[in-house]
Amino acid sequence: MPRGKRRFAIDSRSLEEERYSPKRSRNVNSSRRVSRVDESQSFNQKKCLTWFREYTTSDDPDTLGPEAMEKFCEDIGVEPENVVMLVLAYKMQARQMGFFTKEEWMKGCCDLQCDSIQKLQRRLDHLRGLLIDQNTFKAIYRYAYEFARDKDQRSMDMETAKAMLQLLLGKHWPLYTQFSQFLDQSKYKVINKDQWCNILEFSRTIFNDLSNYDVDGAWPVMLDEFVEWLKVSRGKTNAS
Fold first, then answer.
1. DSSP per-residue letters across 12-28
2. How many domains are there within the chain?
3. What is the CATH number of the domain that holds 70?
4. How far apart are the first and last CA of the chain?
5. Are residues 156 and 121 in contact, defined by beta-carbon separation less than 8 angstroms?
6. Over the stretch 156-205, which tens digit does the pLDDT of each residue have?
7. In terms of DSSP H, where are the helices of the chain?
8. Are strands 156-157 and 100-101 parallel, antiparallel or unpaired?
9. Residue 2 lies in a domain
């Protein structure tokens, strides 16, 4: 066999051996598996937008409204009143309760790297976990005021305020039940932003026995009145 042909034959055989060697086969399969995992975990903007369109109509393709919101909550397995929906709205920086615009949806989903129901469901525990950090909770609490209030009004109506306070503080503030009772019998019909923010600070800093409450402090009059009301209420309970 001529030398050139023999060298070609050897090279060809080496290529065939490499192509079908178990080691190379394993490497190829491993690479394909990694590729499939990366593809399933990566965020796809087009897929995310298609997912959003499942909840909108041709009349308003860029807004997910209240009825569609109920369907969305059903799909991800979360009640609309669940606090995790407020956290999700915070991540999207949604401007109006019950609505997600296309821009808000894309921003929030990109941040969470979610382009499907399944991916968002896997991120729900992460969203709940954001409430544990005090600074993040404070940001979400303050966001809730602007998110939930009627945009035509400077203050939040009392019915909405109580619902949001229940959602955010009901399980964590021991005096919430008494505060809610106080609001029910008070003259207040709305809550302004200063009152809203101070309610959180009050819940975090004032002892349940009110022993560290400073009557000369810079608390809103609403909270001064709540302290007076609670002391009288407790006095009546002790007397009976």
1. HHHHHHHHT-HHHHHHH
2. 2
3. 1.10.238.10
4. 116
5. no
6. 999 999 999 999 999 999 999 999 999 999 999 999 999 999 999 999 99
7. 3-19, 22-41, 45-53, 66-76, 83-92, 102-112, 117-129, 134-148, 158-169, 176-185, 193-205, 221-239
8. unpaired
9. no
Greatest Cα-to-Cα distance within the chain, rounded to the nearest angstrom: 116
**Together in a domain, 75 and 117:** yes
State which H helix or E strand residue 56 sits in: none
How is residue 232 written in tokens? 């009288």
Residue 194 CA to chain centroid, in angstroms? 24
Return the number of other C-beta atoms located less than 10 Å from residue 213's C-beta: 18
Given a cut of 50, the residues of the chain with pLDDT beneath it are 1-39
For residue 207, what is the domain's CATH number?
A: 1.10.238.200
Domain, as residue range, for 176: 154-239
Measured CA to CA, the distance from residue 48 to residue 22 in angstroms comes to: 39
Q: Residues in the chain, how many?
A: 240
Whether residue 1 lies inside any domain: the answer is no
Q: Is residue 209 part of a domain?
A: yes
Rounded Cα–Cα distance for residues 11 and 6 (Å): 9
